[in-house]
Queue: 2 jobs
Job 1
Amino acid sequence: MTAAARNTRLDPGSAFMRNLRLDHAGLSRVLREIDTQVGQLAREPERARTVLIEALDYLLYYHHSYHHPREDRMFARIRARDSGLDETLQGLTHEHETGERQTGELAAELAALSHRQLRGQRGRRLADQINGYVRHTRIHMRNEEAVFYRRAERVLEPDDWRDIVAADDGSRDPMTDLALMRDRYPHLAEHLGLPVKQLGLVERTQPVSEELRLQMLALTDLYGGLIHEALELARGNVDQLLGVRSPSALVRAVGEISSNNLRFAGQCLTRPPRWAINGGAALVVACLKPYLKTSQSGDA
Amino acid sequence: MRERIQAMERFFPDVPADVTIDLEPGLSHCDAEWLTPQAGPTERMVLHFPGGAFMTRFVRAERLLLARLCRAANARGRLVFYRLAPEHPYPAGLEDCLEAYRQLLSGGTPPEHILISGMSAGGCLALSALMAARDEGLPMPAGAVLMSPAADMSDESEEGGSRIVNADRDAVLSLERGDDIRRLYLDGKTELASHPYVSPVLGDYSDLPPLFFQVGSTEVLLDDSRRCAERARSAGVRAEVEVWDRMPHGWQALSFAPESGRAIGRLADFVRECCP
């Protein structure tokens, strides 16, 4: 059954609330996509930027232009019925205003930065801001659902709902119509429909220092591994000696212990130089990377 | 093994104070908990099956994971400590999971407000429970989130598959124990391994609700998620897979890791999408 068909059976208030919740469902899906694309911003700036700008445009077009005004009208009615919530409801309405301004600013900054800037410090700062925006929007949505939507359902009277619904222009979330989404936001719609998504760790936009850190971790691993092997070797040697029951077994045990010790000594000699060669090469590549990226992207 | 896991559990923090835990009403054969965040949960209900190779579990870690998910999604949680092998081999655990789902339905929770969730072996049981519920004619829940489900007990490792390629890269799981787990979970009846309720990767996904998989790129179980999702999509079911770069098995439960918070935020987004 479609949401529209379901809504025809609900009273106006319930149908109105259901649509607000459906808006949050659509918003959640887009927030997830924004979170995905922010993680790709340094790696694939053009593609991620295109999707992000469309996602922010969708938020400005629908959520800030239609969804929030609906909520604000409802909040005003709740305040009229329950003055105890005055301050918090005013706070939410204020968040709608600042959210709209912030969305526009983020979209403008995204559009203005070059690929190189998006990969660098300014890109990182912008990514942090967008991550903060996503986090804040999720909390805002949670508060609305958990407290104010329920309060509305409890305190508002049929007259309130009639006025709220009468003031509504009936605009629907484009997320409920995939053809419309594809038409208006082709890149966002394409990514929303992708069945498999790759998510990275925190982006390494400081390649040299990050590579240095990774190599230091590899060195720690290397020596940690050698210490572990030394302990295992010592334990094995003791076990071998404790298992000796005859002179011939003693000779065999000493032979095995000697060859095991020799093999371990060989590892101690060869592994650190191998790390030094590999690590050094990785650092050189990391140092060259920014220049390679600049010449590849042609965006100096 | 259970003792060792209990000792490791000390490192996981308690459930936050703003989440209350109730035990009643319970289930017939196993313990189960109701988790309710104080900050006004909605009508959403997350029915969660913990992991632990069908034989053990990280109680505190799974409880904390579910509490965090419920807080993020404004949902109540139902944590099912299904019976474990080898004392209670298949299908005891699956029966407990199904009973928990039936209990929610008979208690008046509409199916469209229920979201099933499972980690590792619990992910396998989540998929199996969905298939078994559908086969019983029960209404389907709104969706399911599967965190690295162990969905293939038949263990048909393919050349180039994640069970082979990631064998040396997986920091948590080793399939060397796979035969033991299979034998104990199935009480020696290893011919059951290809049954779709045991290996849901081989099952029929038609009419299942939307599925959302999260898995690490270096996990031996990476292909289980991919294969389940492909099969689901070919049956017309919306199935999305998130492959997280080098994240270890069960990272969602490691509350100190930033990627855990990010993963939970995304799971909660999916919960909200499915249960508006």
Job 2
Amino acid sequence: MGLLSRLLKKKQQAADITTPIGSKRDRMIPLYSVLVAVAIGLPLWWKQTEVYRANLPSEQMIAWDSNPPPIQIPFNFMIEWDDGLEPSSDLVLDWDTKIENRINSALMKDANNDRLRTKLPVSLKFNLQRSTGKNFDTLKPNNYLVSMKNHEKGQNSDKHPLLHVTDTRKWIAYTTKKKSSETLEIFEKSVLNYLVTEQGKLRQSVVTKDTQGSSKDLHAINYSPKYSLVFSLMNEDPESQITTWDIEGALKQYMYPLLNKLSIMSDFKVQSQILRYTALPIPPIASNNGTYITSDMLPNFINSAEWNMASIEPVAPTIHFLLYIPKTTSRPLVIKDSNLVSSKTNGFMISQWGGIHISNPPSDKQVYKFGTKELQPTMEVFVSQLRELLGIQEVSITKGQHKNVKVDELSPSNGVTDLELDSLMCRWLIQNIRLAASTLGSLDRMIISLTNMVVHDSIKDLVSDALNRLDQTVHVLSTGELSNAFTNSAFASGLAEKAFFDPDMVGMLYFPDEHKYAIYLPFFLPATMPVLSIIGFRLRQWKKNRGTKKDRSNPSPLKKPGNPAKPHDE
Amino acid sequence: MLGTRHQNQSRNADGDSDVDEFSAPLLIDNDPDSRIQHGSIRVCTSRFWFNYRHIANTLAIYRTVKRLGIPDSNIILMLADDMACNPRNKHPGAVFSHPNHEVDIYGDNVEVDYRGYEVTVENFIRLITGRVMPDTPRSKRLLTDDKSNILFYLTGHGGEDFLKFQDAEEINSYDIADAFSQMWEKKRYNEIMFMIDTCQANSMFSKFKSPNILSIGSSRVGESSYSYFHDADLGLTVIDRFTYVNLKYFEDIDMQSRSSFSDLYSTYDTKIIKSNPGYDTRHFKRRFDQTLLTDFLGAVAKAEITEKSYPLQRNITRDTSKTGSNTAKVRCGTASVGNAIMYILYHICLLALILLYLCATCFFFNNGV
């Protein structure tokens, strides 16, 4: 009790103290507190509600998108000679530099003539070296070794020089001492022809998207660091015949060599399944022997409503391969084109989706097993389809040179020749650079246009990593390392995509004004009402005072009588 | 060009129709220009039993696109509530869009990708902009590219420039427009068809600024959209008028159909719809009367007969398969040698033990005796 009374006394005392001198200060206190609140509170509020936006290297991002540095893809050739075959130095001095210069100037000319509006200046660079006598067991992509062999020792059917472009990176040229310079000419022409077409293809692949790509491009699935392949055995009627397959053995024998070759660029995840009772949504047309479906019916072949083709891969593109076994009553089921000519392969491809092969096993057995051998025709169709789906294109190296150039266009052991593989790598490299550059440009434009979007430091890190990788790609290309450059470009596009699709950069970006009022009013209205009223009151008082000051020329407006704010003052 | 059908809009709502307020199913169908593949996504954002018709709208469109060849893997269906299993549903496990209850549009083959409380504005924006969490399964991702045509179908309760999600939040036309421009920026679509059935639906596409978007809405700004078919059995209306008119037209088209959007639009009867549907082709390059419905609603794959197969060697002699089997063989060999040694050692030991035992017993007995 004593404490309380003492407290009350103290308070009274304090009031007593403040009241006499408070007249001026009291009036200023609300103004000061408003000032302090505004001076501290406003910046604090501004800072607190500010959207965090990391400082992205905007100029670089835009530069890569709109004005990228020229990309030069190296092609390195080495020539080694059997004893005594090299053209004598007094005959052809510096033949290697001469060939190199001629091819490069032709490539340059071609690039200049090429009126394609590309978003990425791409050109090829040809390097030629005399072999240093090293042992080349494995040659890196875009590194080729041409061995000049004595004609008599090699193929001896005719004496013409012969350039054998093999399915590996080691080419062989059969020549004689007299014809060695002619052989070099053939080599020069073939390589030039090849490089010019490659250059054209590469530039075409980065042409501005106004012109639609060729139909070939539409089949192809874009580059992905990972693909998922699903092989399905579809049995329409397991009641009349049960089918099984030795898919593991067949894949190991026919598909894996190709996938191993491609694995330097992408990972492949292979799965297989057997589906039964897979009725066709389209009834095949009966003919005198068996049934057929026409090419118009093919788009509706896949019964997407009933066949379980769903993939569990979160992002990787899935490529399906179906081995379809029709019911025994409709066998043989064949595919006929619009002229009703039976297809040779009995297979067809659906763009960007996968391939289908229809097989008609003998229907006398109750259980039919596709062994590795029986699956070979199927696998050959699938390999051909996979090549098209990935965009592997046959290379053209001969043009009016057929007599002297022999090209291995097929690689029966691998499914892809090294030349095709390198060509694909170049195309994917260019596409990756373009994808990374355009993604960075899009990201920059998007962030600028959406001012409410939060941009964390992690985005900045990803972007600078991507830019580094892009610079690295160009740098590594200049040193001639294609596969290394490819890896960098794949990283660059992956990082750029990751930055663009970062899950943090989502939210309501547009707030209508009504929402803003609705949020701030409950906070500020109760607080601002008394403050505003006191400020208004003071203002009114000040005006009144000024009026009285003019009337009475009172030197002290604050001590004027009749101040209603402090009635106890009087 | 912004076309609307003129009709007197004021107060023509009669007793059986109630005003849309809350649900938004979305349907996305990606069908590349070259008619390659397709994908479709549907989202329903309406909760509560009385919004049965929004679920029914969405499911009916889902059935249509599925019939027209878009597989479930390319459809994203978002339903904000589970009407089939609602305790008030007199027909458990079934959803009907017509009072005659002939076709169960829920059925036993439906794949709802986002359901219940997963249907939020955030998830919707994440889905279409591709900024999903890394652990999101494939069925909840929109994996489209610059060759994809996408159909968005949204229905629910809305108002001018907004569409309610879950009766708790709303998406506004600016957010959708921003999301679409981000999609365009990242080449996530070739063309979009945006179809919306809600009140004042046409306001939802008025803010679009990205190219290649064709929009159709059920009603003008200031108008309500109304429901159709009261089902006395279920005690509510089962479909919306605008969706009903569309479905009726879709019923007659198949994968080979050549019907264009203007054919569809000309069937819109404002006497039935009771609002003025509108369309917007400002951002669309192709002509309205030359754009086929199946470009968005269906998926016709582009098939090509494989000309030739790739001749492969019968006996593979190179590459890893060989080295692999060799190493396996070697390993096999060493393993069998090891086993043999172990086998012999074991028998020697056993023999030694028996001999030792014999010796010991002999010794013991000799001594003992």
